[in-house]
Amino acid sequence: MSAHLFEGKDHAAIYQKHRFPPPEELLNIIFSYLEEKKAKPYDLAVDVGCGSGQSTQVLLPHFARVLGTDISEAQIQQAKQTHSSSKVSYCVCPAEALPVEDGSVDLLTAFTAAHWFDIEPFLKELARVLKPRGCVSLSSYSPNMKIHYGHCSEALTEIFRETQAVLNKYANEKLHVLLSQYQEIFDLVPFPDKKRITFQGSEISFTVAGLMGFLQSFSMFQTFKSVQPEAAEALLNKTQARFLETMKVSSLETPLTISLEYICVLACKTEQVAP
Ligand SMILES: C[S@@+](CC[C@H](N)C(=O)[O-])C[C@H]1O[C@@H](n2cnc3c(N)ncnc32)[C@H](O)[C@@H]1O
């Protein structure tokens, strides 16, 4: 069963505002892999579970056409409003039934999304749509986030972990795929030419307000909010107050940085797979 956790209009708007595009180092890994496996030029990329389009737009310079797909109408609405280009189109559809022809895709990506899919039907669909030597990248960051600010980085990281521990009670069971660093997905990818890598990303600039927005974009925060809105608000306020107190600042615009651990499963369609 697909997890419909990013459907609300408010959630999609928070998502659009507070989620960031995939980092350069991840994109370099993906494009080096693609170039190693398949000669240019590249026609079509499909970004599955594209959300509000941040991950789709980074593909545009490399392809003649890019399609972003998502099961959530609200997310696709946000993507269309924010990221328009003659090269890109968006479509509401499940990852397990993509509206593209057999053997037509050079690169299929899913950023922070594959753990939500029904993985076996999705992987069958992947085998159907990729061109021979076409590639796939299924990547995400893990919940193990580090926060950096002066001499209180460890204290802030611990506060954030404590907040995440409260939210974990509201986590969808599919998140176990992410916690196992996509091992399950990797094992099921139907191509022999595949690899799984993990790496520590470099620091990303944030503010305290931005970090609180990022926290609100988590599906488990939205689930908590839907069942206990006041408690969710109180948790957010408490986390924010603890941050400001620990940093000894009063402005929510105070800059800090975060760093994330990334997981990426890469594979190339080198053998015909039985449907
Ligand atoms: C965490 S968001 C990632 C969005 C975007 N790729 C990014 O990097 O910001 C996960 C997205 O996957 C979508 N999703 C979940 N299950 C899906 C499915 N079965 N088919 C298509 N999209 C799905 C959700 O609606 C959501 O927009």
Q: What can you tell me about this protein's structure?
A:
- By secondary structure, this protein is an alpha/beta fold.
- It has 2 domains: 179 residues, Rossmann fold; 85 residues, no CATH class.
- It contains 11 helices and 10 strands.
- The protein has a 7-stranded mixed sheet with strand order 3-2-1-4-5-10-7.
- Strand 2, helix 4 and strand 3 form a beta-alpha-beta unit.
- Helix 1 packs across helix 4, helix 9 runs antiparallel to helix 11 and helix 10 crosses helix 11.
- The model has no long low-confidence stretch (mean pLDDT 93).
- S-adenosylmethionine binds next to helix 3.
Task: Give the SSE map.
Elements: H1 9-18, H2 24-37, E1 44-48, H3 54-57, E2 65-70, H4 73-82, E3 88-92, E4 105-111, H5 119-129, E5 130-141, E6 146-148, H6 153-167, H7 175-179, H8 183-188, E7 194-200, E8 204-207, H9 208-216, H10 219-227, H11 229-247, E9 255-259, E10 261-268
Parallel strand pairs: 1-2, 1-4, 2-3, 4-5
Antiparallel strand pairs: 5-10, 6-9, 7-10, 8-9
Helix pairs in contact: 1-4, 1-9, 6-11, 9-11, 10-11
**Structural domains: how many:** 2
Shape: globular
Supply the CATH architecture of the largest domain.
3-Layer(aba) Sandwich
N-to-C SSE series?
HHEHEHEEHEEHHHEEHHHEE
How far is the N terminus from the C terminus? 21 Å
Ligands in the model, by name, code or SMILES, are: S-adenosylmethionine
The rounded Rg comes to 19 Å
Q: Which class best fits the helix and strand makeup?
A: alpha/beta
Tally of DSSP β-strands: 10
Beta-strand portion reads 15-25%
CATH topology of the largest domain: Rossmann fold
CATH superfamily of the largest domain: Vaccinia Virus protein VP39
Tally of contiguous helical segments:
11
- Helix content, binned percent: 40-55%
CATH class of the largest domain: Alpha Beta
**Can you give the mean pLDDT?**
93
Strand order of the largest sheet: 3-2-1-4-5-10-7
Largest sheet: 7 strands, mixed
Query: Would you identify the regions where 5 or more consecutive residues have pLDDT less than 50?
Result: none
